[in-house]
Inverse folding.
């Protein structure tokens, strides 16, 4: 029989809400802690305060089952808990170091409410060495409260991709647990047992994830190293795409060919505008800052960031090359979120691109299937559909590769535009189809027509 543990998740943002809902689905009793009263009311009603595919139904189901509850009362949440997951945000602070203020506040609140022995698991992406710092912070809180409670700290980095977070949690490639307390690792391991065995409803027993047990500092380093490597892979193929444009090669075929090498693999080799979101940039900056703290010069990490930044500039440069002056021009953006499957605008390329276009005097309109407000660049006109967005546009830029953009009637798009330039910033659409629709189609590192071969 599956062991049922009591789990508390402190912080019910993106990570905390997914963690809470998924552990509840596995049969554990879960309490989520949220201090923002507006968000708390939504969560208690089974409504996530952000958009993530599949989470609406899962959260509503688990809240209705009684397995999952939410509260702002830390004492009540931690009463009788076996494991406490720390899931608060760590946004970028000064000099690349994460802002740890939310973690500090949460750690002190946890220390003031602990009873007996607890295992505290850091899901938040924290600087390397934070496990020991967290130990000291909670120890101080316990001393202030004259508490005799004890605890152990485990690092369990999250690898959730926005847009597929539930799948990533329930069907991960690996689960990493780091601690200096073997008993604490064993308890958290047991919480994940249904995932390791894939015995839950919808599990895949033929594809079981790996479990990695390691030390606290090593586990903290794993998250930064993983994200830095993925970001580097994208920046690498984007730099190659610029070489392809100069020499007349096709980046799609180049990426396909090198991706067939098992040492390289085909993931994260899609050239385009580059990466965004809340993780890659923040984690790169944090890892580079840590390296500098120890007297190292993270030249490769800095280059990864610089190449990614240049891809956003490239979009505006391509528009300038085609339209010449942008002042008085109409430019439509298709997609605003940093990737499909989410409404997250954190470090979204659309923000930098739209800001620069507005600065250069362009009128900018946009359509995104889920983003309905764009306060980051208030001058942008948000439209209800693709055709309204591209109406009278001199140029259109595909920013986010939402699947529905493959089904757009591009002949109609061409007919309502004032110009005909369509820049596919994700190399997402079929060049031949776009040319047949009458559009002057541009992309990133691809040949003008579909001359690629099948490998």
């Amino acid at each position: 029989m599956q062991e049922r543990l009591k789990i508390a998740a402190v912080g019910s943002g993106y990570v905390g809400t997914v963690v809470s809902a998924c552990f509840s689905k596995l049969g554990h009793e879960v309490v989520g802690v949220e201090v923002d009263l507006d968000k708390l009311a939504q969560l208690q009603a089974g409504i996530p305060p952000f958009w993530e595919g599949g989470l609406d139904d899962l959260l509503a189901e688990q809240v209705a089952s009684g397995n999952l509850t939410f509260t702002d009362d830390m004492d009540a949440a931690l009463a009788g808990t076996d494991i406490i997951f720390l899931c608060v945000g760590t946004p970028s602070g000064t000099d690349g170091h994460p802002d740890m203020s939310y973690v500090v506040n949460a750690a002190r609140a946890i220390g003031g409410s602990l009873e007996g022995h607890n295992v505290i698991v850091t899901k938040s992406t924290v600087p390397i060495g934070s496990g020991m710092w967290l130990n000291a912070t909670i120890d101080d809180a316990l001393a202030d409260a004259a508490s005799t409670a004890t605890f152990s700290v485990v690092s369990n980095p999250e690898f959730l991709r926005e847009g597929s977070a539930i799948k990533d949690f329930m069907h991960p490639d690996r689960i990493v647990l780091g601690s200096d307390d073997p008993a604490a690792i064993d308890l958290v391991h047991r919480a994940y047992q249904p995932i390791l065995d894939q015995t839950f409803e919808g599990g895949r027993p033929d594809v079981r994830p790996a479990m990695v047990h390691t030390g606290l500092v090593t586990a903290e380093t794993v998250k930064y190293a993983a994200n830095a490597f993925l970001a580097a892979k994208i920046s690498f193929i984007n730099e190659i795409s610029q070489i392809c444009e100069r020499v007349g090669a096709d980046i799609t075929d180049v990426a396909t060919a090198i991706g067939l090498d098992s040492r390289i693999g085909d993931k994260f080799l899609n050239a385009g505008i580059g990466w965004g979101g809340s993780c890659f940039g923040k984690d790169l900056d944090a890892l580079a800052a840590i390296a500098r703290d120890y007297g190292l010069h993270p030249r490769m990490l800095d280059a990864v960031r610089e190449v990614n930044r240049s891809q956003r500039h490239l979009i505006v440069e391509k528009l300038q090359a085609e339209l010449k002056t942008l002042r008085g021009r109409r430019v439509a953006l298709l997609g605003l979120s940093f990737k499909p499957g989410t409404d997250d605008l954190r470090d979204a390329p659309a923000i930098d691109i739209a800001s620069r276009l507005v600065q250069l005097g362009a009128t900018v309109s946009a359509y995104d299937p889920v983003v309905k407000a764009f306060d980051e660049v208030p001058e942008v006109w948000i439209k209800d559909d693709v055709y309204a967005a591209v109406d009278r546009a001199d140029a259109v830029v595909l920013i986010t590769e939402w699947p529905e953009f493959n089904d757009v009637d591009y002949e109609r798009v061409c007919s309502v535009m004032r110009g005909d330039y369509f820049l596919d910033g994700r190399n997402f659409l079929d060049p031949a189809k776009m040319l047949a629709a009458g559009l002057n189609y541009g992309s990133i590192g691809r040949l003008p027509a579909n001359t690629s071969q099948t490998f």
Notes: Confidence is low (pLDDT under 50) at residues 450-455.
